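User: Here's a structure from my thesis project, written as structure tokens. My advisor, Dr. K., wants to see whether a designed sequence matches the one we expressed. Can you design one independently, without my sequence as a hint?
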């Protein structure tokens, strides 16, 4: 007996697939991870308490390019021997008859995800400092990798990363949104005109921040997660995105939902920049532009999530009051982007 299937999972079919590739025994339990608003993530456990992680696209109508399981599987596989911490890979399934969509399975990495100020209270200031230092070091390590050397040289175009991102997210909002967003369009024009010249290229994670990493027992990054937005291009966009999520003490802007990195012990934004600069020879003089760009891009991403939620595409995830707060959050992000651009 396998019990009732959670949204997006055919327990009988997926159990058969997993048992043919792992040491899983007995009835499997699929627990939907509630953190995250894009691809669906399940922790799978067997009767021996062995665990794995399964990733699949949201149920319902989605933009396929934003939820390419094969791409995410390929990236994590390529990074296995690079020193960048990622989960081990069990396998990829492209047969949609198994559970309605492609999916892949990774090894389970034990540790903590620190997603807000409350979570950060479980750690001392010294432990928090180690976490933030490791977070910066791993990002610099990722950016130092030559994608050609690990088989990712054709993952995407290397040139004009910001321009490509501006076009991509503008197009997805234009095609997917059900409302007018005049400030979004105005900022797109300003960001297009003011984009810095890209110097060099590398692997960009696309959503690099503390709560997209698993923190191990030593308080260092044990695994970088959520590679669905990864591509090639201007790696400083990753640094700008991490700084966007970092937050600043005394900042009245609530768009980032009390990031844990505001707690005592975590590096300040200036210390983040200094530590990254010591590990990289890249010109960091245009970082404010990249932060403004990331506020705009996050607004585009969340607009897509809002549309999918409205269409009932997120399975049985409970996001409660967030539905009513989507528009307020998106407006706040666009205002933060505009404000950051004004300060440049």
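Assistant: Designed independently from the structure alone:
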């Amino acid at each position: 007996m396998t019990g009732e299937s959670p949204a997006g999972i055919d327990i009988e079919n997926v159990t058969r697939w997993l048992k043919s590739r792992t040491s899983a025994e007995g009835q499997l339990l699929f627990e939907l991870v509630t953190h995250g608003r894009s691809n669906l993530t399940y922790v799978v456990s067997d009767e021996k308490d062995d665990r794995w992680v399964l990733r699949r696209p949201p149920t319902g109508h989605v933009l396929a390019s934003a939820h390419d399981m094969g791409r995410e599987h390929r990236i994590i596989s390529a990074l296995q021997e690079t020193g960048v911490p990622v989960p081990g890979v069990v396998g990829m399934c492209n047969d949609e008859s198994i559970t309605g969509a492609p999916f892949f399975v990774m090894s389970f990495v034990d540790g903590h995800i620190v997603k807000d100020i409350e979570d950060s209270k479980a750690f001392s200031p010294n432990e928090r400092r180690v976490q933030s230092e490791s977070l910066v070091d791993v990002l610099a390590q990722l950016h130092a990798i030559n994608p050609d050397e690990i088989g990712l040289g054709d993952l995407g175009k290397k040139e004009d990363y910001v321009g490509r991102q501006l076009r991509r997210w503008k197009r997805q909002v234009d095609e997917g949104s059900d409302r007018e967003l005049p400030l979004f369009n105005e900022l797109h024009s300003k960001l297009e005109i003011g984009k810095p010249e890209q110097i060099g290229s590398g692997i960009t994670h696309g959503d690099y921040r503390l709560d997209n990493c698993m923190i191990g027992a030593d308080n260092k990054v044990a695994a970088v997660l959520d590679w669905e937005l990864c591509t090639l291009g201007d790696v400083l966009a990753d640094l700008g995105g991490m700084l966007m999520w970092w937050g600043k003490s005394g900042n009245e802007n609530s768009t980032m939902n009390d990031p844990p990195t505001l707690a005592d012990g975590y590096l300040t934004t200036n210390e983040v920049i200094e530590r990254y600069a010591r590990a990289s020879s890249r010109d960091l003089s245009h970082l404010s532009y990249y932060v403004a760009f990331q506020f705009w891009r996050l607004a585009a991403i969340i607009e897509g999530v809002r549309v999918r939620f409205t269409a009932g595409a997120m399975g049985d995830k409970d996001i409660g009051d967030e539905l009513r707060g989507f528009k307020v959050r998106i407006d706040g992000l666009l205002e933060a982007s505009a404000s950051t651009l004004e300060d440049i």
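When you compare it with your expressed construct, this may help: The beta strands are 29-32, 40-45, 51-56, 89-93, 103-107, 202-204, 213-215, 221-224, 231-233.
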